[in-house]
Design brief:
It contains two helices and six strands; from the N terminus they run αββββαββ. By secondary structure, the chain is α+β, with helices and mostly antiparallel strands.
């Protein structure tokens, strides 16, 4: 019983102090210049353009709306664009940098 409680306490402590993980590369803070939703049927995607920055040899990045995170990333992008808030963008671990249309893994809206 004591071992079980000690193990639960250790897990709870780790969970309480853990920060959200981000992969690399992550860039920012940047401001969005535009958000474009492109309907390609089941492969619909979003293009975002960042202002005054060129990461991965581009200022235009993409993410798929068909991914589970797609709607959330679109919401974060539109919120940032509408409010003028800056974001951090995280390049996909799977695809890496590919120039124009480099795929994103996450978008973090930052406070003013």
């Amino acid at each position: 019983m004591k071992k079980t409680l000690a193990a639960l306490a250790a897990v709870a402590t780790c969970a309480a102090v853990s920060a959200p993980a981000t992969a690399e590369p992550t860039y920012g803070p940047v401001q969005l210049n535009q958000v474009r939703v492109y309907d390609d049927g089941a492969n619909a995607f979003v293009l975002i353009e960042v202002k005054n920055a060129t990461y991965c040899s581009t200022s235009t990045f993409t993410f798929k709306l068909s991914n589970l995170s797609g709607a959330g990333m679109l919401s974060a992008s539109l919120t940032a664009l509408a409010t003028g808030q800056r974001v951090n963008i995280e390049i996909s671990n799977t695809t890496g940098c590919n120039g124009y249309g480099t795929q994103l893994q996450s978008i973090t809206v930052l406070s003013q």
